[in-house]
Design goal:
- There is one protein chain.
- With 504 residues, this protein is mainly beta.
- The protein has five helices and 31 strands.
- A hairpin with an 8-residue loop joins strand 8 and strand 9.
Length: 504
């Protein structure tokens, strides 16, 4: 099978990188939970921290007892997952190859579970279904692989690797969009990122294995490009673009040695690599005020941390122990952000990955397993600005026997607990003192005025006449308010505050 040869060549290149670093192919077993310890994970030896790096504490090692997801009976292999905590469910998309699929080649599957520990099944139960396959005649005519899925303002964006023929050469990155994560539509007629061709190497894989994050209005896209000038001797390397356009058709900036700079397009020179690796994942961690990159190394999945502008690595890397194989998918919230610990949001961050493992005598990655750790000992809420980012969507008691809701970096005081609860994603029974330093932006009093406009939704009109859109109409009824019909022009004349309620 064409793709099996491609996987063997790419995996051999990855193993060569690990061998160069003194890595073993696989660990011999799964870790058991242990007490807290600095850095590392599972007793993995690491280099001492660099000057200025902070060492994080690690505990709560976890690993699935077996496979958490696999394709149907005729699926050849499973690898390269992207994992999303989407409401009450965990959703996963990954690369497989159904022998029955048409056209033949790689397919992207979808499944869901209650937790990253699985078991993952197709929606409604049963085998996972293929949601994106090759488009005959297109740049991805035979292969669609390595998905990275985020959701912004109700739209799912899938960045993926595509190739029209042998997946060992000539890869590029495509984009598809969806309203539900199941029915996908390609954006445009071709790829959005093509190989840079900065240099010539034996590894002609090209550009692929994307990882996307949305932060502060920017779409960040990290990816492999074996033709990039700053890639390793065998093509390993991770490059980064960002744009406010999800299709990266305009306003693109590339990360170089001196930071982000405007470039004319997505195929410009690759001058700075974030990590010497193939197939990595990217996530924003508000509690650390840092990006996290997951990539496979000796002993498991190494998590490398970069500050907001990618100018420094503020924390010593940590390792999630587990049997080695490429393609870690971090458990992320819809915009590519880290989950927040519901009981200790300011002091602890859960890090969970799902990745392929080599089973028995298999020569290619197959079947998906879950591994994880927590990093802790943080003080993420010591400063109000970071605390507001970490506590987004949380509500807790106020000093005035009401509730304070954190939304859009602001605090809204809500008279009724029942209203605050339905508008929040998490409820804390005790107040965190850091909020005492944050001014209240608005008060949602019982019976407050509410309005609704056709096609625009419902919102509360609060102090000073600011309109605060509501994603949960039930909150209006619970507040003993009545939504007054207004026209679209009337709605648009309001100054708009942050959204109240969970965001799609």
């Amino acid at each position: 099978m064409v793709d099996a040869a491609r996987r063997a060549r790419l995996c051999a290149a990855v193993l060569a990188v690990l061998a160069l670093a003194g890595a073993a192919a696989c660990s011999s077993g799964l870790p058991q939970a242990e007490g807290a310890r600095p850095g590392g994970g599972g007793g993995v030896e690491q280099a001492p921290p660099e000057p200025g790096q902070r060492t994080l504490l690690v505990d709560r090692e976890r690993a699935s007892s077996g496979v958490v997801a696999a394709g149907g009976a005729d699926a050849v292999y499973n690898y390269g997952p992207t994992v999303m905590a989407d409401g009450e469910r965990v959703r996963m998309w990954w690369c497989s190859q159904y022998g029955s699929a048409r056209p033949p080649g790689d397919d992207i599957l979808h499944a869901e579970a209650d937790s990253p520990g699985g078991p993952f099944t197709g929606r409604g139960g049963g085998a996972p279904g293929a949601v994106l396959s090759g488009e005959p005649g297109g740049f991805d005519g035979v292969h669609t692989c390595d998905p990275s899925v985020i959701r912004v303002d109700g739209t799912y964006y899938m960045y993926y690797t595509g190739a029209r023929g042998d997946h060992a050469v000539g890869n590029a990155i495509g984009l598809a969009t969806s309203s539900d994560g199941l029915s996908w539509h390609r954006a445009g007629d071709g790829p959005i990122v093509t190989p840079a061709q900065d240099t010539r190497r034996d590894n002609s894989y090209g550009a692929g294995q994307p990882a996307a994050v949305y932060l502060d209005g920017w779409f960040y896209l990290m990816f492999t490009d074996t033709t990039g000038g700053a890639a390793g001797w065998n093509g390993a390397g991770q490059f980064l673009l960002r744009a406010k356009d999800p299709a990266f058709g305009a306003g693109v900036e590339a990360l170089g040695p001196d930071g982000f700079a405007p470039v004319s397009g997505t195929a410009g020179p690759r001058t700075s690599s974030l990590v010497d690796a193939f197939s990595a994942d990217l996530m924003w961690v508000a509690a650390l005020d840092a990006f996290a990159i997951a990539h496979q190394t000796d002993g498991g999945t190494t998590i490398t941390f970069w500050n907001r502008d990618f100018s420094a690595t503020p924390y010593r890397p940590v390792v999630i122990p587990g049997r080695w194989q490429e393609g870690p998918g971090l458990l992320r919230r819809p915009q590519g952000h880290a989950p927040v610990d519901p009981l200790d949001p300011c002091g602890r961050v859960p890090l969970d990955v799902v990745h392929a493992t080599v089973i028995g005598s298999a020569k290619a990655p197959t079947d998906l397993r879950h591994f994880g750790i927590d990093v802790h000992g943080l003080d993420a809420c010591a400063e109000p600005e970071r605390a507001l980012a970490v506590l987004e969507g949380f509500t807790m008691p106020s000093p005035a026997r009401t509730m304070d809701l954190v939304t859009g970096g602001k605090v809204v005081r809500v008279d009724r607990r029942s209203v605050a609860t339905v508008l929040a994603t998490r409820v804390l029974d005790e107040r965190l003192p850091v909020l005492d330093e944050v001014p209240v932006a608005a008060r949602l009093a019982s019976g407050a005025r509410a309005v609704r406009a056709p096609g625009l939704g419902t919102g509360f009109v609060l102090d000073g006449g600011t309109l605060w859109p509501v994603t949960v109409p039930e909150a209006v009824e619970r507040n003993d308010s009545t939504a007054e019909p207004v026209s679209r022009p009337e709605w648009e004349r309001y100054v708009v505050g942050s959204t109240l309620g969970p965001r799609s």
